[in-house]
Amino acid sequence: MYALADCNNFYATCERIFHPQFSSKPIIVLSNNDGCVIARSQEAKDLGIRMGQPVFQCRDVIRKNNVVVCSSNYALYEDMSRRVVSSILHFIPEVEIYSIDEVFFDLTPVADCDLEIFCRKIQSTVLKWTGIPVSIGIGPTKTLAKLANRVAKKDSLAGSVYRFPVRDLDRRRVLAATPIDEIWGIGRQWAKRFKQVGVDTAWEVVQMRTADIRSHFNVTVMRTAMELSGIPCENIESNPAQRRSLVRSRSFGRMVTRWEHMSQAIASHAIRAAEKLRSEGGVAGRLAVFIQTNRFRKDLPQYCVSGSCELLPPTNTTPVILKEAAAIGHGLWKEGFQYKKAGVMLSEISFGETQSTLFSDRDHEHDAKLMQVMDLINVKMGSDTLHPAASGVDRRSWSMQQGSRSPRYTTRWDELPKTS
DNA sequence: TCTGGGGTCCTAGGACCC
DNA sequence: TCTGGGGTCCTAGGACCC
Questions:
Q1: pTM value?
Q2: With CB atoms 3.0 to 4.6 Å apart as the test, which of A42, A235, A266, A361 could cross-link to A329 if both were Cys?
Q3: What total of structural domains would you count in chain A?
């Protein structure tokens, strides 16, 4: 049996923990640049504020209902997430961290216990230790655990923990009550295709012949269908597969029209990407840079391009990546457009021993030492304490906007919560 | 005026090989 | 008039997830 623990309204809950005065108010958290709504408390959901909705579209609702608006604070959410996971690890030896607010685990080690009572114990402990309410779904496959989790959240009788039923009749009832587009792995496009062939619920998916699903869809959808009928196709991945690519990108706070600013932004993304790669001990064999205008401004000329180059030998050295990124970016740059976004992608990532090259003029030992010192200083004194000048000193003309970010209460000494 | 960021997997089609 | 069969590798694009 599998379980999925999912934090309720995670980002909104994190904000509330440190601002108890918001506990009864509707509260939303915005994406980077304060653009879209990416998390809502129950009260905000009840007001009809949609997930992913641009915030300017719901200004009226926000004003009329005194909705509390927060910029996103990932330093805080990531640290709270870590605390939730370590609380769960007190009960179960291995978990799969599926996302910042979801954890899968295998219940085989505790098969003798009453699984619901066991999960309720986890639930109450996480709440006590972190302040975060979690809902837990239990099922014979990950897809069914996910489905059970949805019931745990919606059904007030479930009390935040729900086990997918064993009896055929109950099984059928729960599956029939699950609309096609709420199944994990079935998004908008597949849901549309299912509806076209007259399939609207999870129960109807289970009734289909696998061969028919395979021919109408693909193997991913077929696996989902099998999981719905109780045949596991996915295991718990407690050792996450090593990453294959890494992206750092941001929309600009204001439109960028000068190469000077664009080059700073590209440099800054390249620096962050290389830093992240080093922190994981990888090297990249390919580098790509992209720049874009604002796709929502149909009235403005659009320009959306990317370029890439091989990194030989594969590297994680900032100056090397920086130099290549600047060259690619400069090749893409065209005057006369208003740019909205830029980013850097590292791919063909490998770990451990890598093939060297005969004709390199770089002193790799020296590079490694330099990067180590730079990373050490930035970890100790705060990120960006030491950085190449290419990313600029005054970044106001392109850096993102965050009107109301809460302090990084749990990860910065100078932002600790104060009591009086 | 204002619209996020970061990933994975699968498939089809083209280039190329013998 | 009539022009094969069987592979691999790479890339772009589409789907999904949070």
A1: 0.93
A2: A266
A3: 2
